[in-house]
Amino acid sequence: MVSDMGGFEAGMRARVAASRAGLRPGAAATAGTEPSEPPPEAGAADAPADPPGASARPEDPGRAARAGAPVPVALSHEAHGDGPELVLLHGVGLDRHLWDRCLPALAARHRVTLVDLRGHGASPAAAAGVSLAELAADVAALLSGPTHVVGFSLGALVAQRLGLDRPDLTASLTLVSSVADRSDEERAAVELRQELAVQDFGASAWAAVDRWFSPAWRAQEPGLARQVLDTLLANDRASYLACYQVFATADAGLWPWLPRIAAPTMAVTGERDPGSTPAMSHRLAERIPGGRAVIVPGARHLLPLECPQELADLILAHTGTHPGTHTGTRPGTHTGTRSRTRPGSHPGHESHRS
């Protein structure tokens, strides 16, 4: 693994500081897909505030979907198991195999659909300017009724948009390692990584693996770290950059509208995730009515690979299908026990919004 990206990233940071306004390729193309005005039915009391730095109030995502529904593409996907419908969405640069370690436990109690998002895996390419609304519409086209939606990283942003655009299809939301309402410093950091991907895609992939894997985990499972790296390097570069643009910017457009999500929502992240931080999961839990946050001690970003059993237990408890969840328990209420796949670990910490 690359052990010292400091010199390269320092140079990138200087260039970002000098040319922040022109940094994000495709920004003009995607700006029009984000909200621009409050919905006509919103009164002054419930109209969301402008996001920081916004020059116009965002448009209701649900209204945008009704006014001009995006044309979905046919996503590559597979289904396993039987039971209530559940769909798994991966992060930028990865594919549906991210969920392989969680699948046996989830498919024992759900009909699980694993998806390659647009621009990833075996699904069609993503064009420059692809929007979060389009990625969500692709997933919606696969769903035939209320579905428990589990999204990781970029997939968590897609899940939030799906919850706003198609509440009829979202039985619950589990937001794994999700960003939310990035600060100026956090936004600068993701812009730096975006610029690194533009300038040196290979170095960007190596740097991601270095962020995601602790030295101890990488030493324990070097083959897994190499597999994740190979997945990143196999991406179509144009599709990756188009989807990374969504990942880098969409949280700002979502933020004003999160209080309108009606589905029971859980946000879960690793204690040591430097990009999708515990503070972000707490923000989501506070912003979404009835939301709750779970922080997994000692874990980094790749929860589906690093602690799959605990994550699967959390998901099943949230959907009401965990073996320790009593019949009739309200979705989102956890009554079972949690176990870690790593020795010496501890249960996750929770916070709730009522």
TrEMBL record:
Keywords: Hydrolase. It holds the Pfam family Abhydrolase_6. Residues 86-313 form the AB hydrolase-1 domain. The keyword Protein biosynthesis does not apply. Residues 19-69, 319-354 are annotated as: Disordered. Residues 24-35, 42-56, 319-336 have a biased composition (Low complexity). InterPro entries: AB_hydrolase (IPR050471), AB_hydrolase_1 (IPR000073), AB_hydrolase_fold (IPR029058). One of its GO terms (molecular function) is hydrolase activity. This is Alpha/beta fold hydrolase.
